[in-house]
Design goal:
20 helices, mainly alpha, Growth Hormone, Chain: A
């Protein structure tokens, strides 16, 4: 067992090439989570509450599609491997749908515009993004069996993710203005981002290779019972997931992490109407993403220093929650510099979980293998896509509902007192509460020890 743990499978070219694939994922995710709502309300003229409801309804398709595509990846066998074909071809659909969302015809009736958005958004999230993102995440378990390499891959991946997100939040407002503002400018920006995504995704797919089934099975302690087959149905896959309590905890944490991110991305409203400067979104993005990237650089070393992921993740999120509490206090004090400092502290504390999440899921997948003798790597990684889409969607939908409830008027120079109070709740209080919930979950998420105990029992 010791030998296969220490064996290395990847060069730095493989790791960086893999990580660059999150440029593609985040030109979609960052643009939608930070700007789709304000584009629809202030440029197209849609109602925030209706848009929020459409996004929420769209999420009903996501849970089924995540497990479906995860199961399909597990059943796929091609020369490219199990996950790489889905990652490669799924992204072309992502690019088309992303552009379609920002191409809603102005001469359509309001009902037709809402229908256009709903169809494009659902196809993107429940279909193409799901296939691409689950496949991308599943590669963590399919191209190496070395846990240190998995942590390194996750750290590098999220450096690209946060760097891309930071860049998009920093330059998008200026780019739209550069292209003349209005719907045509948003469309041009979406096309540029889609092209960048296609290129980076393709390069990432071509930079790695998947291990053969024989290589993946080498050195494993668990043997299937005589006559038992690896094949399983979608229903079987679902049962395996819900029997794994650590999968459920990771899934809940990931969803909450994405709701947290979505509420922060709705900060464009807070910056515009409370701080009176939309360009501050980019400044806050730097104070979120730069500490995240710095933390990710040190995550692999910190995992080793802390003797695993459990203590590191829990300690980090305690710091992150306290940091967000500081943002709340600074916000009511009206001190932007203090808000930025506390934002940076929170982001630094949250970075280890982002960096080792894929390794944590791979460890969770090993728990299912050790307890049930089934390999469900693709299905297990459905929680990443499910969390991103469900969490991001809920966060964006929630923002739409709360804005509508508060009486928000799209494009108005000033907003009502109730809207201003709601913006404080959305940007200050909600992220802190989500962080606290994640911290509570992390107190129980010690899957590494559970696996060690299982291996010890199997060895005897």
């Amino acid at each position: 067992m010791k030998d296969h743990k220490e064996k290395t499978y990847l060069t730095w070219v493989n790791k960086i090439g893999y990580g660059s694939g999150d440029i593609a994922g985040n030109v979609v995710y960052a643009l939608l989570s930070a700007f789709v709502m304000i584009f629809l309300t202030d440029t197209v003229g849609m109602n925030a509450g209706i848009v929020g409801t459409l996004i929420a309804v769209s999420k009903l398709f996501d849970g089924v599609s995540d497990i479906f595509f995860g199961s399909m990846i597990d059943k796929t066998n091609t020369k490219m491997g199990k996950a790489r074909p889905w990652m490669l071809y799924g992204y072309f659909g992502c690019a088309v749908c992303l552009v379609a969302i920002f191409c809603i015809p102005a001469d359509m009736s309001p009902k037709a515009q809402y229908a256009w958005f709903f169809i494009a958004y659902t196809l993107l999230n429940a279909g193409f993004y799901t296939a691409n993102n689950i496949a991308y995440s599943a590669l963590t378990a399919l191209i190496t069996k070395n846990n240190n390499e998995r942590v390194q891959m996750g750290s590098i991946r999220f450096m690209f993710a946060f760097g891309t997100s930071m860049l998009i939040q920093t330059i998008t407002v200026g780019l739209v203005a550069h292209f003349g503002g209005g719907a045509a400018a948003w469309r041009t920006v979406a096309i540029i981002y889609a092209i960048v995504g296609v290129i980076s995704n393709t390069l990432s797919v071509m930079s790695v290779r998947e291990l053969s089934p024989e290589e993946l099975a080498e050195g494993e302690e668990v043997k299937l019972a005589e006559g038992e087959e690896e094949k399983y149905s979608l229903a079987d896959a679902f049962k395996l997931l819900i029997r794994n309590k650590y999968y459920l905890m990771i899934c809940a944490s990931y969803i909450l992490m994405q709701i947290y991110s979505a509420t922060l991305n709705m900060g464009i409203y807070y910056m515009t109407y409370v701080l009176k400067n939309a360009n501050l979104l980019g400044v806050f993005s730097w104070f979120i993403n730069i500490p995240m990237i710095v933390g990710l650089l040190f995550t692999p070393a910190l995992v080793m220093k802390f003797g695993g992921m459990y203590k590191l993740n829990l300690t980090g999120y305690i710091i992150g929650t306290l940091g967000r509490l500081g943002v709340v206090i600074a916000g009511y004090m009206g001190s932007v510099p203090l808000m930025l400092v506390c934002t940076a502290v929170a982001a630094l504390g949250m970075s280890p979980l982002q960096g080792d999440m894929n390794a944590l899921i791979a460890t969770c997948s090993e728990y299912t293998y050790l307890t049930h003798g089934k390999r469900v790597d693709g299905t297990m990684y459905s929680c990443t896509s499910l969390g991103t889409k469900l969490g991001g969607g809920i966060g964006t939908a929630l923002a739409g509902w709360l804005l509508a409830f508060s009486g928000y008027v799209g494009g108005a120079a000033t907003q009502s007192a109730s809207t201003m109070n709601m913006l404080h709740i959305m940007y200050l209080w909600m992220p802190m509460c989500f962080n606290l919930l994640i911290t509570l979950i992390l107190t129980r998420l010690n899957v590494e020890k559970a696996n060690e105990d299982l291996r010890s029992k199997l060895a005897h």
